[in-house]
Design a protein that fits this description.
Chain A has 453 residues and is α/β, with parallel strands linked by helices. Chain A contains 17 helices and eleven strands. A six-stranded mixed sheet of chain A has the order 5-4-3-2-1-6, with helices on both faces. Chain B has helices spanning 74-77, 105-113, 116-125, 127-139, 142-153, 164-182, 190-201, 211-215, 242-257, 272-282, 301-310, 328-340, 391-403, and strands at 10-12, 15-17, 24-33, 47-55, 58-63, 85-87, 99-100, 224-229, 263-267, 289-293, 317-323, 344-350, 353-357, 368-372, 387-389. The chains are: A alpha/beta (453), B alpha/beta (405).
Chain lengths: 453, 405
């Protein structure tokens, strides 16, 4: 048994932010709130006895004391984790924390709650036992401001998500946002949350892949359903070595503790950047798993994108001494979240380019990315007022081409330069290319810039 | 049921009787809900509704009970927060708490028929926007749905013409507007919906061209086909996955349009065996198939240049076909190199799997289906389902890429 993450929120306002961000993301945006905010939560990984090879997860939740709706909140979480098809949560036990044994029940609602718990044999834990469990958690955090509360909610939702492309994308987007905040604020909380995601991504995630690959989901498991080949290599190692669930649970603690320290140190170093942070995670995880990862699944994409973008922008700016103002167009990939976008915007402004307007094209495959931007901007925590979203389709390339062409043309006709990134699915990249070529050739030569990322 | 403005609901055992005061805004027939992240996979829908009925302040699903045991679909329905599902009739056995739809289905069918053509068209030309609209309205919370549906409605700026793509996109926008009224988005207005529906009614959409139609005019000028297949995971070196078979099928069918022209399969270290499989499958006395490996294109471009020259890919007219996806930086470096060698390039992308209108009516009455485009005859692949860049467009794009390389 390994309690991976313990979150305690001491202010009710922050608890609401933490809860609403967690519930929105974990439910796949199928619901937006719980009847009562969460005060404390612990995510636990454990290996069931009886020879089962799964590493299961359990979520312990204590709703805000003294508020009505605790039983309903727990029902909603159980529904999301165990039944709801839209929710991204993996199947897990949701356990309510009970402050003390029911000695004499003084409220009718308590009778109903106690009856429900006994009848359905819902797992519960007494607060004093929960406190002991929480004390043993690999990572313990307590948010102090709204951004930290949001980060805690997103991290918990990512860690609760299952083994599927969105599950991996959520871990990546969340890690990128945490990395961005860590590099900005050097706050231990962000390093700790990042470490929790890394520990989960490099242990539980591949462990489940190892079991599922041997089962029914084969074929293009890693590329189509799971999303990254790095975890595939770890899963293969687990299978080849016959790694036991308890050994994997030991790795959870070792990875989280090493990454938390390494990430914080890396963020305050002289050459602190996302590339060195990714490298630090890669080296530490490779060492603990005794496997050369040859890449980093969570943050590895960020330095690659920034390097290609930086090269393109430097070429573009070479002949220009003055600052340039552009309208920026980019398609969302599964990894594009607020974190990656802010890294991109920093790189753009480093090259003396100002963005007057920005349009992100998204497809159904990146719907969750679009909604994550909405979630993060909801309380004006990550507000980008000039950011717009347009839905397109990778398998409707003609429609996508027309939409992109219309948007770029509008920008150019308004007197701006257009800077477009061609990334993501090939047919989307080609629709962008074709649209840019049209505007460049027929509307305003020299004012449309295209970079392949 | 969302939005809270659906009044007049009387409940009794087993039936929710809505009364008849609710005006219908829009009816969509055969709505399949897909997991959005599986839209590029050959994946089935996780829920299908015979009709989705939009009222002001409520979105309802209506199922036609064609056989008694169909009510068991309720186990699927409870896996979603929403929507509330009504049934055209109740099964003979007394199943508690099923909701009976109080109107005849013929009335719904009649309303849908008014824009049937556009509803079907949108499943072809704007299938992903349709998926987004349906998923948002039926599976997301009202707040999140509003965000996505508003994004779709912002597509109204698309120039309106009689081309099928614009008409299909416009229809999805109309549907999104109806859904916004259904979820109670305060910024959506019923009169706006009515006005746009009238405008849509007046559009006549012409014939759509096929992939074959757009390739045949260039049949004589193309000297060779470059084929870039999306990487497919191989379970075993000796077993050809279905997707690779279908890629070979696409290459073969394109070769039939350009008889006698060599096919050059563009390989790299990740897809070597896959490319060999495609080559083996294409082998015939009538087709000259070669493989060219461009793994080194990032590090040693001269090496790849020599390979291209060896295959006489200089001063030629080339049809470069990407089967769905390929490493973008490799493709664009290859384009730069081919351009440098004075080749004139058509660049075509054919997606692998796509949601489209069902070719034949199926037993379940579904109007759309996931289809492999790669296995279709080019005369059955529609122009708007692929993207083709003409040599002049590739030339301009190459120049733009050179500027920011």
């Amino acid at each position: 048994m390994e309690p991976l993450l313990y979150i305690r929120v001491d202010e009710e306002g922050l608890a609401e932010i933490f809860t609403s961000s967690f519930i929105r993301l974990a439910s796949g945006f199928s619901t937006t709130e719980l009847p009562v905010a969460i005060r404390q939560a612990t995510l636990l990984c454990y290996s069931p006895s009886g020879g089962e090879r799964y590493i299961r997860k359990a979520l312990f939740v204590q709703p805000w004391p003294g508020r009505e709706g605790a039983a309903r909140a727990l029902h909603i979480l159980r529904y999301l984790a165990q039944t709801c098809a839209i929710s991204h949560m993996a199947y897990m036990d949701v356990r309510g924390v009970i402050s003390r044994p029911f000695a004499e029940i003084t409220k009718p609602s308590y009778i109903a709650l106690a009856h429900d718990i006994v009848k359905k044999v819902y797992p519960t834990i007494l607060e004093r036992e929960f406190t002991k469990l929480a004390a043993e958690a690999c990572i313990k955090v307590s948010p102090r401001d709204e951004k930290q509360a949001l980060a805690c909610g997103l991290t918990l939702a990512s860690l609760c998500s299952g083994v599927h492309r969105i599950g991996m994308a959520l871990r990546q987007m969340c890690a990128q946002l945490l990395a961005y905040e860590l590099l900005q604020h050097k706050d231990k909380l962000y390093a700790d949350l990042l470490a929790a995601i890394a520990a989960d991504t490099y242990t539980w995630y591949p462990a489940i892949c190892a079991i599922k690959e041997a089962g029914t989901i084969r074929g293009e498991l890693y590329s189509s359903v799971v999303g990254t080949t790095i975890v595939g290599r770890i899963a293969s190692k687990f299978m080849k070595d016959g790694t036991r669930p308890n050994d994997i649970l030991n790795m959870v603690r070792r990875i989280s503790s090493r990454i938390a320290d390494a990430a914080l140190k890396s963020s305050i170093g002289r050459s602190a950047d996302v590339g060195s942070l990714a490298k630090e995670i890669e080296l530490n995880v490779s060492d603990i798993l005794s496997l050369m990862l040859n890449g980093e699944a969570l943050l590895g994409i960020v330095p690659r994108v920034l390097s290609r973008l930086g090269r393109g922008l430097r070429e573009l700016m070479e002949k220009h001494e003055e600052e340039r103002e552009v309208e920026f167009f980019l398609p969302a990939t599964e990894q594009l979240g607020p974190g990656l976008l802010m890294f991109i915007l920093d790189e753009v402004s480093r090259q003396r380019i100002t963005i007057s307007n920005m349009t992100v094209f998204y497809t159904p495959a990146t719907l969750i990315n679009r909604l994550l931007f909405w979630l993060c901007s909801d309380r004006r925590l990550y507000e980008l007022p000039y950011l717009h979203f347009l839905p397109i389709g990778a398998t409707n390339p003609e429609l996508s081409y027309r939409l992109v062409k219309f948007a770029v043309k509008k920008a150019v006709e308004a007197g701006h330069d257009a800077l477009a990134l061609a990334m993501g699915h090939m047919s989307v990249a080609m629709a962008i290319m074709k649209a840019c070529a049209f505007i460049e050739a027929r509307v305003k030569p020299g004012h449309v810039h295209l970079i392949i990322v | 049921m969302r939005g809270g403005r659906i009044g007049n609901v009387k409940c009794r055992w087993g039936i929710v009787n809505m009364g008849d005061r609710l005006g219908i805004i829009h009816v969509e027939k055969s709505v399949s809900l897909y997991h959005p992240d599986l839209i590029y996979n050959y994946s089935d829908a996780f829920m299908e509704c015979d009709y989705v009925v939009v009222h002001e302040g409520a979105i309802l699903c209506v199922e036609e009970l064609s056989k008694a045991e169909e009510w068991l679909k309720r186990s699927t329905h409870v896996r979603l927060w929403a929507p509330l599902v009504f049934w055209s009739k109740l099964p003979a056995q007394k199943v508690p708490h099923l909701a009976l739809y109080p109107q005849e289905l013929e009335a719904l069918e009649r309303i849908w028929k008014e824009y049937e053509h556009f509803s079907l068209l949108s499943r072809d030309v704007a299938s992903e926007l349709l998926v987004l609209a349906n998923f948002s309205a039926l599976a997301l919370s009202g707040e999140a749905a509003k965000v996505v549906l508003r994004d779709i409605c912002s597509l109204c700026q698309l120039p309106f013409d009689e081309y099928a793509v614009a008409a299909g996109g416009y229809y999805v926008r109309l549907l999104a507007l109806a859904y916004r009224l259904g979820i109670g988005d305060e910024s959506a207005r019923p009169d706006e919906y009515a006005k746009e529906r009238e405008a849509l009614r007046s559009i006549k959409v012409g014939e759509q061209k096929s992939l074959k139609d757009i390739l045949e005019p260039i049949r004589d000028e193309v000297n060779a086909i470059l084929f870039l297949p999306r990487g497919i995971w191989l379970e075993r070196e000796d077993r050809m996955p279905l997707s690779v078979e279908k890629q070979a099928s696409l290459a073969g069918k394109l070769s039939d349009i350009f008889p006698g022209r060599p096919i050059v399969i563009v390989s790299n270290e990740r897809i070597r065996r896959q490319c060999e499989m495609i080559k083996e499958r294409l082998r015939s006395p009538h087709v000259d198939v070669k493989i060219i490996d461009i793994t080194e294109i990032q590090r040693d471009i001269d090496h790849v240049r020599r390979k291209l020259l060896k295959e006489k890919l200089r001063n030629r007219r080339l049809l470069t076909v990407v089967a769905d996806d390929y490493d973008k930086s490799m493709v664009f470096r290859l384009l730069l190199l081919l351009d440098e060698l004075k080749n004139s390039i058509y660049l075509l992308d054919v997606p692998g799997v796509k949601l489209r209108r069902a070719e034949a009516p199926c037993a379940t009455g579904r109007l759309d289906e996931m289809a492999w485009l790669w296995e279709k005859d080019p005369s059955k692949i529609l122009e708007h389902e692929v993207i083709l860049l003409e040599p002049k467009e590739v030339e301009v794009a190459v120049k733009m890429l050179q500027r920011c390389q």
